[in-house]
Structures are given as structure tokens and as C-alpha cells.
């Protein structure tokens, strides 16, 4: 194994400057454009952001000399990948509202960070060792990159703590210069954070022996945790025959917990049986018990696969279920590969390098494909849900509409298709929900057809509210009473007219039994406005009981026991203590 060559003095200065430049780029993009809110309208700026992140990260983590052609070839390949992804992202978010575009951008930035973490060790290993796929080198680079990121996070927190202390101390004596510089200046925040992160990573790369020492310390921690996790897996597998698999199928997070258990056990196995270990870990008996427990890992992954398949068969694909299926595939590949290595070698000093390289190749490949048309989770999910709807149109509900609205352009296209469907045209509630979903989160509280709310029942035989009441509800409080629209002639809400302030004019009280609350509309200066709320309705109060009470005239109002105080015409409201 070739030892790490020290970084040159010029490179140790250049890399922090690169981090500062990256912080400046993010600040300028955030300050001068709406890229972070509407990336679809700033395609080339999106590539500038992603490309700068890729170039900076590659230089900070992998560069040993700026004269390495392979380094720049690797950056060029990563930039080509970014160009494909940015084009796909712009296409996917076109037509979405600001919030959905912003969410999609940040999801991709997080995925990009994960891809870079998984891909850069391959380039680092090639630059250092001179060949691709050297597993000991890959293992070491993954360790050191992860530790460098953790230390960078710690250093950033400590750095800002020191800056806060400085600003607070000088503010204490009336000097606000440092507070203004550190916390009211966005450019400083971005630039100094980028500098701290880049400097910390550079220091970690310049002290390889220290990183190896920390790696050995954490390996000892993993060595202590592995038997505990193995015991949990054995006990869990022994308990399953007693309760049956149906207990797992009834839980929403069953597959996630099973995959977490399986992957945690496999990760600890990889850390303990690392390729640079000189002697087998543990005693012979404990070592054989742990290697025997490894046979249960594929069983755990298979149960997780069954749980995912059950949900997909019942409710179709969603992005979360597709992610769960891919994670389960990784669990199966990893666990079956380890078992195959164990069966092939049949000795305690097993070598898991071949399986490790396969997993480290497959995982970034899946992440790359998720952000292309080949494996787009939103496209697959929309096709699955529309197939379910075409098979049985009664399956369409508010939850499905809300999900489709979040699935980028494919979801919006599906909603437009549903809006044109004859069945939806005859359903006022679903048509309104689809229209609201297409309006997006930028249009919360947009005017709704007032006649839709005339279906809300009245608690007592009394004149219908005047048209202005319905118009106010539809315009200003649609977000609050959309759940009140009747479904199959049943509503969760009820309207009641009652004079609450003694002005001889009734207020309208909207009871929402599902939320166990009510709010009051009062006519003030010719306009209907919200006057207050009733919270924590009695558990026994429902539509039937409210109607009986209102019609039997057993419903009345009660003045407050404590009066407000007036001094020189100025009213001082009394606020009683609550015990």
C-alpha cells in the first residue's frame, strides 16, 4: 500500500481559498437571482451552482497536484453527469410553484452530496494507487472522507461559536461592528463557512497518521457494538415465528426498520473485518457466532422485501416505496454477497473485499439513475397510481391528489388528466381539490366557488347565511374549511347562528368536529370577519347532539365572570389565571 504523499504548501493555501470562492458563488446566486426558489427559470445558473460544488469538492478532497490530467478528466466526467441531471431537473420542475421547485432543488443537492461522497474515493484511489478498485485504498478513503466531514461540521460549529462570543462581548460595551459583520452580512457567512470547511478537510488530509489513529479508535467502538447488534438480530428472528409476519405487515415502518437492522449489522461487519486487519477479531467462539449470525442477514432483507412488495401490491408505487425497494435490493446484494464469501472461503479470516466493491459500485449507480428518466421515482409512481385509478376510480381520494401534486411535472400532468375525466367532472369535491392542488402552495387561500360550501348543514332550522358569508369563507378561510365539504352527503362540520356579543345580530359559528374546534364570523362595519375561536370541544359533542341541543333551545350564551376595567375611556382587558 502506497503511503499518502503530503500536500504541497501552495495547495494547502489554495484549497481554503477554493472553499471561500465556493461560498461566494452560493451567496451571489442566492442574492442576485431566484435560483433557489425557481430553478426551472435559471437552467444555466443551476449548472453553475452544481458544477462549482462538484469542482470545489473534488479539488478539496482529491487534488494532490493541479498538474494531474486524471484529476481534471474526473472533474470533466462529473460535470457531464451534472449537465444531464440539471437538464432533467429543469424539465421535471417546469410549471411547478415556488415551494415545489425549491424542495426539488434541495432534494437534488442532498442527493448530489451523497453521490460525491460515494464517487470521490474511486478517483482518490486511482490518483494515489495508480489503479481502479483497490479495495483497501477505497476503504481508507471512505473512512478518512467521512471523518473529515464530521470534523468540518464540528469546526464550523466551534468557529461560529467563537464569532458569536466576539460579537456578543463587543455588543455588551456598545460596539456593534462585529455583530453587523458576522451576522448581518450574508457574504461573510457564506465565505467564512466555506473557508472553515475547506481548511478543516485540508488539515485532515495533511495529517494522515492522526486520521488513521481516529479510524482505529472508532473501529474498536464498532467491534464492541457488533455483538450487540448481532444478538438483537438473533432475538428478533427467533421471535418472528411466534408472532407471525402479519405483525410486520401491519406497521408502516416495518421495511425501514428491518433494512436498518440489516444494513447496520453489515456495516459493522465491514468495519470490524476491514481489509487492513492483521489478525482475526474476537475469540474463536464469538467469531464463529457472529459469522453464523451473518446467515440471518439475507433472511432479514427478504422479510423487508416482502413488506415492501405487500405495500406496493396494496397501494401502488410511491417515491418512498421505490426508495425502500432500492435500499432493500442493496441489503440483499450486500448480505447475500457476504454469505457467498463466507461459504466460499469457510474460514474465520474471511475476505469481503469483492462484495464490498460491488456494493460501492451499485449504490452510486442507483443514485445516478434516480435522477434520470430511466429510474425517475416520480414518473414510475405517477404511472402506477394512474393505473390504479383507471382500474377503480373510487380509489382516488384527497391523499392521492395531495401526493400527485408533489410528484413534479408528471404529477401535474396526471392531475390535468384527472380534471378532464368525466367522473371527476361530476364530483364537486374532488374537482375542487384537484384545482387547489394545481394552484400550488403559492396560492393558499385563493378564491373558491362559494356555492360549494352551501352543502355544509345547519344546526337548526334557520335562514341560510347571506351570500357575503359564503364569499368570505371561500375567499379568506378556504384553507380552514375545505375539510368541511360533504363526502357522500356527510360533513365533519356544522353551522350555527347565535348572538355572542349582545348586538342583536347573530354571529355564524362553524363547528369542525374532526378538529374539535369552532371559529366565529361576526359582521363588523358591513364585513364578515373572524371574531374568535372555541377550542377543545367536548368529546361527546357531534353533529347529532349539536342539532338536538340547538333545536331544543338548550343552547345559550354565558357572560364572562370577570369584567374588563375602563380608566378614562381606555379599556383594560382582564386576563384570568388558569389553574
Automatic annotation (TrEMBL):
Protein keywords: Membrane, Transmembrane, Transmembrane helix
Pfam families xref list: DUF4153
Transmembrane regions listed in the UniProt entry: 12-30, 42-63, 70-93, 105-123, 147-175, 187-205, 217-240, 252-273, 285-310, 322-343, 355-375
Highest taxon above the source species: Bacteria
Protein name: DUF4153 domain-containing protein
Organism this protein belongs to: Siccibacter colletis
Amino acid at each position: 500500500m502506497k503511503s499518502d504523499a503530503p500536500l504541497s504548501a501552495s495547495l494547502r493555501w489554495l484549497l481554503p481559498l477554493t472553499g471561500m470562492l465556493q461560498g461566494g458563488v452560493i451567496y451571489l446566486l442566492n442574492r442576485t437571482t431566484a435560483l433557489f426558489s425557481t430553478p426551472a427559470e435559471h437552467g444555466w445558473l443551476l449548472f453553475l451552482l452544481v458544477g462549482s460544488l462538484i469542482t470545489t469538492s473534488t479539488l478539496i478532497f482529491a487534488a494532490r497536484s493541479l498538474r494531474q490530467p486524471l484529476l481534471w478528466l474526473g472533474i470533466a466526467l462529473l460535470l457531464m453527469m451534472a449537465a444531464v441531471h440539471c437538464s432533467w431537473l429543469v424539465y421535471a420542475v417546469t410549471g411547478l410553484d415556488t415551494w415545489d421547485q425549491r424542495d426539488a432543488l434541495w432534494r437534488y443537492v442532498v442527493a448530489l452530496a451523497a453521490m460525491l461522497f460515494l464517487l470521490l474515493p474511486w478517483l482518490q484511489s486511482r490518483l494515489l494507487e495508480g489503479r481502479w478498485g483497490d479495495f483497501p485504498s477505497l476503504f481508507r478513503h471512505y473512512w478518512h472522507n467521512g471523518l473529515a466531514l464530521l470534523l468540518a461540521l464540528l469546526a464550523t460549529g466551534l468557529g461560529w461559536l467563537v464569532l458569536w462570543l466576539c460579537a456578543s462581548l463587543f455588543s455588551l460595551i456598545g460596539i456593534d461592528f462585529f455583530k453587523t459583520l458576522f451576522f448581518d452580512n450574508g457574504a461573510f457567512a457564506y465565505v467564512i463557512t466555506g473557508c472553515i470547511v475547506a481548511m478543516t478537510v485540508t488539515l485532515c488530509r495533511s495529517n494522515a497518521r492522526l486520521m488513521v489513529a481516529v479510524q482505529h479508535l472508532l473501529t474498536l467502538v464498532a467491534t464492541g457494538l457488533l455483538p450487540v447488534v448481532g444478538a438483537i438480530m438473533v432475538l428478533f428472528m427467533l421471535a418472528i415465528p411466534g408472532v407471525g409476519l402479519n405483525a410486520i405487515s401491519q406497521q408502516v415502518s416495518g421495511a425501514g426498520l428491518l433494512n436498518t437492522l440489516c444494513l447496520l449489522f453489515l456495516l459493522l461487519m465491514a468495519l470490524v473485518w476491514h481489509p487492513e486487519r492483521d489478525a482475526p477479531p474476537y475469540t474463536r467462539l464469538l467469531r464463529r457466532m457472529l459469522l453464523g449470525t451473518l446467515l440471518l442477514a439475507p433472511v432479514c432483507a427478504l422479510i423487508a422485501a416482502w413488506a415492501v412488495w405487500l405495500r406496493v401490491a396494496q397501494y401502488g408505487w410511491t417515491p418512498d416505496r421505490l426508495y425502500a425497494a432500492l435500499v432493500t435490493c442493496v441489503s440483499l446484494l450486500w448480505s447475500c454477497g457476504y454469505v457467498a464469501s463466507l461459504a466460499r472461503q469457510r474460514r474465520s479470516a474471511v475476505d469481503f473485499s469483492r462484495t464490498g466493491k460491488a456494493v460501492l459500485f451499485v449504490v452510486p449507480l442507483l443514485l445516478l439513475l434516480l435522477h434520470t428518466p430511466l429510474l425517475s421515482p416520480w414518473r414510475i409512481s405517477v404511472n402506477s397510481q394512474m393505473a390504479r385509478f383507471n382500474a377503480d376510480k373510487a380509489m382516488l381520494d384527497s391523499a392521492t391528489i395531495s401526493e400527485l401534486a408533489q410528484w413534479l411535472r408528471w404529477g401535474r400532468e396526471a392531475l390535468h388528466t384527472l380534471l378532464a375525466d368525466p367522473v371527476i367532472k361530476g364530483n364537486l369535491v374532488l374537482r375542487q381539490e384537484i384545482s387547489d392542488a394545481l394552484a400550488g402552495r403559492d396560492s393558499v387561500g385563493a378564491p373558491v366557488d362559494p356555492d360549494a360550501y352551501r352543502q355544509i348543514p345547519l344546526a337548526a332550522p334557520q335562514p341560510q347565511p347571506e351570500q357575503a358569508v359564503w364569499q368570505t369563507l371561500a375567499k379568506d378561510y378556504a384553507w380552514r374549511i375545505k375539510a368541511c365539504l360533504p363526502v357522500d352527503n356527510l360533513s365533519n362540520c356544522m353551522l350555527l347562528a347565535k348572538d355572542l356579543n349582545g348586538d342583536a345580530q347573530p354571529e355564524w359559528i362553524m363547528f369542525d368536529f374532526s378538529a374539535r374546534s369552532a371559529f366565529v364570523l361576526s359582521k363588523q362595519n358591513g364585513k364578515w370577519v373572524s371574531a374568535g375561536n372555541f377550542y377543545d370541544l367536548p368529546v361527546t359533542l357531534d353533529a347529532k347532539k349539536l342539532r338536538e341541543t340547538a333545536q331544543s333551545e338548550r343552547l345559550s350564551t354565558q357572560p364572562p365572570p370577570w369584567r374588563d376595567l375602563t380608566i378614562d375611556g381606555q379599556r383594560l382587558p382582564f386576563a384570568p389565571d388558569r389553574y
